[in-house]
Amino acid sequence: MIYGFGISGKSIEKYLINKKCNYNIYDDYKKINHKKVISKKYLLNNINEFSYFIVSPSIKIEKNHFLYNLKKRTLIDLDFLYQEITSQKIIGVTGTEGKSSTCNYIGEILSKKYNTKIIGNFGNTILDKKNLNHYISKIDILIIELSSYQLDKLNFLKLDYALITNIFSDHLDYHKTHRNYIISKFRIQKFLNKNSKLFLSKKLFLKYKNFIKINKNKIILHDEITPSKRNLIYFFKELNFNSIKKLIYKFDPKIKIENIKPNNLKYRNQLIYNSNNLKIYNDSKCTNLNNAIYKNNLINSSRKILILGGRMKKQNFKYKFNITNTLVLFFGNDCDLFLNHLNFINSNYFKFIHLKNLINFIKLILVPNNSYNYILFSPGGESYDFYKDYLDRGRHFNDLIKKVLL
Predict the structure, then answer these.
(1) 215 lies in the same domain as 336
(2) What is the pLDDT of residues 134-166, one digit of tens each?
(3) Residues 109 and 33 in one domain
(4) In which domain, by residue range, is 21 found?
(5) 106 and 242 assigned to the same domain
(6) How many CA atoms within 13 Å lie on the side-chain side of 82?
(7) Which of 11, 297, 31 is nearest to 23 (CA)?
(8) Of 11, 15, 36, 56, which is most buried by a Cβ count within 10 Å?
(9) Integer Cα distance of 128 and 13 in angstroms
(10) Taking the model in full, what pTM does it have?
(11) How far apart are CA 243 and CA 250, in angstroms?
């Protein structure tokens, strides 16, 4: 049974069709016009007829869930993919922020010598390829971005290398507690092969050593670099540079990475406007408030604007974040939820419902005297209040800025 008919569910359907497997589809929320869709009543009455339940990663299986006692038969798409792997090396990357950028950097560096493919939470899937075995045979390295949702449900995947970027409080609507979220991230240890290595910073190791369940000889530690306060473009490259460097060296010591400058992901610290007096960064991919504040503090200026908004995620904040020398502009219905977590020092704020109105306000304050030299659009909240995803939100922000300034 395919449980949840989103991107991963649709790719699994194509995979099962290609494998000539019998299957049905069930979704809690979507009304799907499909001959394979079954009702919940039919599912519950015939639940023991299914060999496996292929679940969308975001579905939470708690004690009162009808699949709770069938966890051994519950899989996700990546479990099926692993059954198709032959000689390919697999690199797994997890963390709260910077996973996609880190996967992208590793992929670009290794692709100079190897055929690489990034999949998983990155947004790509290959299970739906018609001749999957032939497609995989041409790949040397699979780089998998792993979310806490996926790590919570995986059973069969095995990794040759694993990397944790960072851990902030996140996804507590799913995990309930920060501790559960940490446990899910460190569950990546379970999927290491016998000779595999886990790469993480000394800072993470010291802070979360009680969650580490593997021998120290399987861990490669590195010092964490403080990112530059002058340029956010390579923020995550600098932040995770030592872990990337050590992983690449362990994989192939002949690859020289010093002269390689990977491209940033779209809407991840993207410099979209650059003049002598003003720089504007589009970081629509940021959905974590902790990370947004951290990046704002990296900008060494007292004339900066931080734009926050979107749908506020449930996070475990023990204290308020200090906002210093910043004009903060909020958008969306959750403005007051953001405000509850902030402490303003020599700063001010304004609230807007729609991003368009916020940008029009920026136009008004920039035109007279241009008293601000940095604008950071790093929402710190999910995009699903008004947008399809962070890409849709990032495009809209770029379009609005072009109308105002370009």
Answers:
(1) no
(2) 999 999 999 999 999 899 999 889 999 999 998
(3) no
(4) 2-75
(5) yes
(6) 19
(7) 11
(8) 15
(9) 8
(10) 0.83
(11) 11
Contact 211, 235 (CB under 8 A): no
Structure tokens at 304: 């900066």
Separation CA 281–CA 78 (nearest Å): 34
For residues 213 and 369, the model is more confident at 213
Does residue 363 sit within a domain?
A: yes
Shared-domain flag, residues 68 and 82: no
Inform me whether the pLDDT recorded for 388 exceeds 80: yes
Q: CATH number of the domain at 127, please.
A: 3.40.1190.10
Distance CA(56)–CA(150), nearest Å, equals 9
Q: Token digits for 160? A: 């040759």
Instruction: Quote the number of domains for the chain.
Output: 3
Residue 236 lies in a domain: yes
287, 296 contact by CB (below 8 A): no
In a domain, 345, yes or no: yes
- What is the rounded distance in angstroms from the CA atom of residue 96 to the CA atom of residue 214? 21
From 198, 194, 114, select the one nearest 161 (Cα to Cα): 198
Helix axes 241-251, 99-110, angle to 10 degrees: 40
The β-bridge partners of 3 are 26, 55
- How far apart are alpha carbons 125 and 319 in whole angstroms? 39
Q: What is the pLDDT of residues 242-277, one digit of tens each?
A: 888 889 999 999 988 776 666 677 898 888 999 888
d(CA 292, CA 380): 5
Together in a domain, 110 and 235 = yes
- The secondary structure of residue 20, as a DSSP letter, is T
If asked whether residues 247 and 276 sit together in one domain, one would say no
Supply 120's token pair: 């998983």
- The pLDDT value given to residue 42: 95
